[in-house]
Please model this.
Amino acid sequence: MDYEAVIGLEVHAELSTRTKMFCACTVTDPAKSEPNSAVCPVCLGLPGTLPVINRQAVELGLRVALALGCTPLPRSIFARKNYFYPDLPKGYQISQYETPLAVNGKFTIRTVAGEKVIRIRRVHLEEDTGKLTHITQPQAYSLVDLNRAGVPLLEIVSEPDLCNPAEARAYAVKLQQLLRAIEASSADMEKGQIRFEANISLRPRGSQLLGTRTEIKNLNSFRSMERAITYEMQRQQEVLLSGGLVEQQTVGWNEDTGVTFPQRGKEEAHDYRYFPDPDLPPLVVDSAWLDRIRREMPDLPEERIRQFQQKYSVPLELAEQILADPWLEQFFLGCTSDILLAEETARWLIGPLAGELNARGIGWEANPLAPTNMADLLARLQTGSINQPMAKQLLKWMLDTGKNPEEIIAREGMVQVSDVDSLKTTIQAVLHAHPAEVSAYRKGKVSLAQWFFGQVMADTRGQADPKIVKMLLDELLTALMGGQLSD
Amino acid sequence: MSSSLLSLGISRAAHLLRSGEISSRDLTQACLEQIESLDGSLHAFLTLTTEEAFFRANRADFFLQQMRKGITPETTSPLLGIPLAIKDVLALSGVRCTCGSRMLETYIPPFTAHAVDKLLADGMVVLGKTNTDEFAMGSTTENSAFGPTRNPWDVARVPGGSSGGSAAAVAAGMAFGALGTDTGGSVRQPAAFCGITGLKPTYGRVSRWGLVAYGSSLDSVGCMARSAEDAALIYASIAGHDPRDSTSHEIPVPGFTPYAENSLKGLRIGLPQEYFLPGMQAEVENAIRSALAVFEKLGAEIVPVSLPHTEYALPAYYLLAPAEASANLARYDGTRYGINRPAAGYIEQFMSSRAAGFGPEVKRRIMLGTYALSAGYYDAYYARAQKARGLIRRDFDQAFQQVDVIAAPVAPTTAYLLGERNKDPLSMYLGDIFTLPANLAGIPAIAFPAGFDSNRLPVGIQLMGHAFAENTLLGMAHAYQQVTLWHRQMPGAANIPEETKEHGL
Model:
């Protein structure tokens, strides 16, 4: 039987607030702060402390809700989600349950089959937990770091409108871009600022019924999300094809072995005993507040892409790729002084430069090039003082040495050779040196023209002007066919 | 000399402090001596802050001296230099806050409760932390992990609870007043059992910052003193908005002024039939009826009212408070502070620490509350209890359209013997029926002495008002106390010579 997947995603994003969700502690970069240095009596859960709602977190949450076309609820309610864990200082997490911040949104993604609307079920605010580090040697114990405890999280829950891992990825990637564009979250996966949970079920293709679903927890990257969903779909399919039933359960994902593993079955499902938090009155959101949030909302990605396309007249995909990363966008703006060069610049950045950075394992945020040097390279290419292969070589050297184009060109003697007479001499020398190929060419193997071209470029260390070489080579080969090989 | 100071009212003491006839050091010394001689048998205090008390007394004396020289010091509050006691569920930075529990036996908070902070800013001399039922769960103070407090009127009897330590301390002259907390009657009932005045303010009137939570939607910080006037002074200090407590109100707190010539003309007192039950101690009912006669003489009108949903208060409270408590007490897992009993895994460690740290009543309420919130039971218990709470609130709203205050007993009986009820939780819970409704409705209520029973045990009366009507309640109790002497009686155990009781008159 042929099955289709029904997938829903829960995305947790850390909001870019200055302070935590319910106290005045600064939100710190986990990589740069001492454990338990950004904590206070409130986020430590000391007896007698009380939460106070962070207004900035509410505003950023509403910003996301509005960008997703959700309806904010006029009175949303914070609830206590009760469970015991060493990273949860109060023994409950303050979250939103029956009455979330906003409901019923829509998010359009692009898939291989065209545009697709994914419905958003709800968006709600909650607090993050602390972080545990498990030590096994020489004795087993766990360390608790509560710097992250109480950091504001926004949970964005989709309807199960996604059909395959690629769609799930497209949704997640686009959501990440949205969160960044409206400055609601840095959504940096390495820092755990965006995390995913996927629920998956299979059903016979075309069926309207929903199968039994499993929920995969703690997916920390697009890649692991895609892999885990793929794995879980396969696993469920095997179960179904062998006549078994999928068990409703929560599963974990092992990144190293690439398999999911059961965490809790339906019977052991947590009873979180949600109830409204008596410490927090309902969160009232009125239309004046919403209006202000709408006014202050940065442009959405679609709008920014449209404006970018218009300003630089570049194709859509190029605009999307440049705007997909804020560092890349910054860099692009830094090296594009001439609007006529914008498209060429964009292609260089997402082509050769992206390739070189990738090969060095460097992200855009760590791109060492100065935009002015990149602009210099492109200007030299444009005026013809260097050619494409030289430019690529120059780029490599710039990345390796950190020197600017002028220094490298001077040191390496990189000058494009455009002198017709000297190039003609070089081409003739190449033809003389390869009589067998010349004869093959004359017998009709015209594809050898490209090979001759390569030889000429190699002999000139790539410095020959390829356009002139091409022209002269054509001329000489045509003459060759007429038997008029000079000398 | 020193024992004669102990029956002074706060405003009289404040007057003598200002004139320089007595010093805060004298008052503090007298209180500490009284504690020294009585607390071995009463056990009102869990922790004494003697050094801090003398430090603050000296500071107060310096300020008082400045005032006499015409210099305005940091505070001129009538509480300047007055020794008070704090129930041990309110945090005082650097002093252990046990909540009457083994769990927090060694826990030292790094911050101070809002109410305590306000009193300190007004110049209070803090004597120490008073005994309480564990996490304020109980009506006798017998649930304290550190042993019960005894009633100064009869040491064989309970002082009431959960603020029994504060009540006993004030009644026995060990402190001029105290802070208590009231979630279901825990200020008013011990005030009645010990013959003092106790005010439970409107929910949200006093910030809960630093009050260790029991039932968060019900918890109120209250004032305990030997007169309504003294309670008013403490109330004025601690009431008001605090941005750290999102449930605290921004409505300003008007100053307390007694009714002119103590006339209560034009005030209507509602008498709810539902609060006079068969089986209630006759002497309690008689005392209430006599007190109402006094109020009539003062000009008030007595009007019968009905609060038809009163019977639901007890079951609603004993679902809602434990439900909230089950979450509030989840943080005591031994990981960051409090008792820690290492075990194989973290869940095992939580279980062993909680098993060791909590007493039976706390465990009972955690289990009850956990059950009430469980999937499949939530609607039948928690949600229905919330509905009942709404009906009780509406009863009061309707009643307060007809009357200014509602009069009722505080408890069905006077203080009972230690051990008499703590084996049977249900009979103890039943003792709370008259105090729970005010907590469920979030309204203010005051308890004050209205007579004695045949065992010479104090009987209290309760007045309940609409939200923010604290001054009406204080004013009426004050007017009553101007024409009666019940509140001036001090227990024989206090050993305060009869003639010196007149000192303040």
User: Anything to note?
Assistant: The first strand of chain B starts at residue 45 and ends at 48. The two ends of chain B are 17 Å apart (CA to CA). The domain at 2-268 of chain B is CATH 3.90.1300.10 (Amidase signature (AS) enzymes). Chain B touches chain A through 45 residues (CB under 8 Å).
